[in-house]
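Tokens as discussed.
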């Protein structure tokens, strides 16, 4: 089995959130636009996403429980992790009865009535809150993360900054080399000019002595 850090919970949870959210969206569409020509298709999509979403929720919950009892953590992160677990349990406790109820409603050809839509909205609200807390324990507390980069003053505005900085550094380097080369040439020219000047002075002095 492929090893996922900390386990398969981060994989399954995305299916849970996506499928159940899509289900609620299409139930709402079917409830608001009852006379629309796609009303039947919207209901079908809503039911299938709910059924699949709850199945993935079972896998998500099991993997989450295993992560809760195995991932390394400290006291503050333990409190955050427990809070996330409690919200997850409440969310699943509401979605499971709705899941079972939806089978009966589907077989009875029931439309998306308010008595069913309201609990679905409450359930998706719980799911959003649970997801938020799940993100907190990873991104705020670092649970399930093997290592984190050491913070420094490095920063850039866009992805091309590294290339730009490299080009800038190269330009500075080339400029430095050019200046050094010019500096190296200048003493030679000065020496040559000084030599010519000294020779001219000697010739002038010799002419005076002859006179």
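Sequence:
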């Amino acid at each position: 089995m492929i090893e996922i850090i900390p386990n398969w919970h981060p994989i399954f949870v995305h299916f849970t959130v996506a499928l159940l959210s899509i289900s609620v969206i299409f139930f709402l569409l079917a409830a608001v636009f009852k006379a629309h020509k796609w009303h039947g298709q919207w209901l079908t999509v809503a039911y299938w996403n709910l059924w699949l979403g709850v199945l993935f929720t079972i896998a998500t919950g099991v993997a989450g429980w295993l992560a809760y009892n195995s991932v390394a953590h400290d006291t503050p992160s333990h409190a955050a992790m427990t809070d996330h677990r409690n919200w997850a349990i409440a969310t699943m406790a509401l979605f499971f009865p709705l899941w079972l109820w939806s089978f009966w409603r589907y077989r009875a050809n029931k439309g998306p009535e308010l008595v069913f839509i309201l609990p679905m909205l409450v359930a998706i609200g719980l799911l959003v809150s649970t997801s938020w807390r799940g993100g907190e324990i990873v991104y705020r507390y670092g649970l399930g993360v093997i290592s984190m980069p050491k913070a420094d003053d490095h920063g850039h505005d866009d992805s091309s900054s590294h290339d730009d900085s490299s080009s800038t550094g190269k330009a500075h380097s080339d400029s430095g080399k050019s200046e050094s080369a010019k500096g190296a040439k200048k003493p030679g020219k000065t020496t040559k000019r000084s030599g010519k000047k000294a020779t001219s002075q000697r010739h002038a002095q010799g002419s005076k002595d002859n006179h």
